[in-house]
Design goal:
This protein has 122 residues and is mainly alpha-helical. The chain contains six helices and no strands.
Length: 122
């Protein structure tokens, strides 16, 4: 999480550049949508009870990191937080849909479009 998301979002460049870099790194980790989503596996079934506190913290950290980038670019704090949540939802949802369909196109489309969507209005 730190290497994939936090270091990228805390790096150099404007908001769009940093969010594009985050999406590029996530795409690499999930091999363009070929690799299944570990979060989904840990949040479903009996594993949730064991890993929920750690996953909660990780998701909050990811959402907050996206929000900080957007706030620094001038976005309202509430909207930035919502966009951070939407970003994580989009990535994780796209991974699950791509796995279910056996087609990486949904994941790749979300990864490509997400930085612009998160920065919309800046």
């Amino acid at each position: 999480m730190e290497q994939i998301v936090l270091e990228t979002l805390e790096g150099e460049g404007d908001a769009l550049t940093r969010l594009q870099q985050m999406c590029d790194r996530i795409s690499q980790v999930y091999e363009g949508g070929e690799k299944p989503c570990l979060l989904a596996a840990l949040l479903l079934g009996s594993a949730k009870e064991v890993f929920q506190p750690q996953l909660y913290g990780m998701l909050q950290t990811w959402i907050n990191a996206i929000a900080r980038v957007l706030i620094a670019a001038g976005m309202d704090e509430t909207l930035a937080r919502q966009r951070g949540e939407n970003g994580v939802i989009a990535i994780q949802g796209a991974l699950m849909v791509s796995q279910g369909l056996g087609d990486t196109a949904p994941f790749q489309r979300v990864i490509y479009q997400l930085p612009q969507e998160l920065c919309r209005g800046l």
